Amino acid sequence: MPWHEPAPDHPRPSAAARVATIAAKQAKPAILRLAVEGGGCSGFQYRFGLAEGVEADDVVVETDGVRLVVDTVSLDLVGGAMVEYVESLGGAAFRVTNPNAASGCGCGASFSV
Questions:
Q1: pLDDT, tens digit, 9 for 90 and up, residues 31-73
Q2: Strand-strand pairing, 66-70 and 31-38
Q3: What's the rounded Cα separation, in Å, for the pair 33 and 50?
């Protein structure tokens, strides 16, 4: 499937492994949806969730059999972004490194352009 440029970067192996584990436990396909919504302390916030399938207008990138899907509206805000799963003393979460973000909040869940 062709996608718009720039597409989000492939999910890092850490994110792919975590999605595969969660999907297997929930008996769902290994598809992580990344969307952007208005809100958060910086203007926009990331939303993650397991998807049941790929929509017609989704951009899809894949790592180790795990697909990351982004709708075309969100793509303008996350094109070229890197998604990884990080674990630290403060907890564990998916993290987005977004080259389009001009600034972000301390927790990394929201950003502005």
A1: 999 999 887 776 788 899 999 999 999 999 999 999 999 999 9
A2: parallel
A3: 6
